[in-house]
Design brief:
three-stranded antiparallel beta sheet; alpha+beta; elongated
Length: 83
């Protein structure tokens, strides 16, 4: 070995940390719509989720994995190329 072992170890650790830091870039972007209430005391129901999904379908946008949790709804959409 031309250099001390700790330098090789340091390079390996830096490469590992850089790989972990860059890993989220491997996943594609997924457009989503998050619906929350504007006023602090307003409660949303699960009906807002079904209504937003039907509005997206009427607009010609496919959606999947609609979730309602607490006081917010999240609808993920599938991007389509417009030609």
């Amino acid at each position: 070995m031309q250099y001390p072992a700790w330098k090789y170890l340091l390079i390996a650790v830096v490469l590992l940390v850089a790989g972990l830091y860059a890993a989220p870039n491997l996943y594609p972007d997924e457009p989503a719509v998050q619906i929350t209430s504007a006023a602090a005391g307003t409660q949303l129901s699960e009906g807002i989720l079904t209504e937003s999904q039907s509005l997206l379908e009427e607009a010609g946008l496919d959606n999947h994995d609609g979730t309602f949790e607490g006081n917010s709804a999240l609808v993920r959409s599938i991007t389509q190329s417009i030609s």
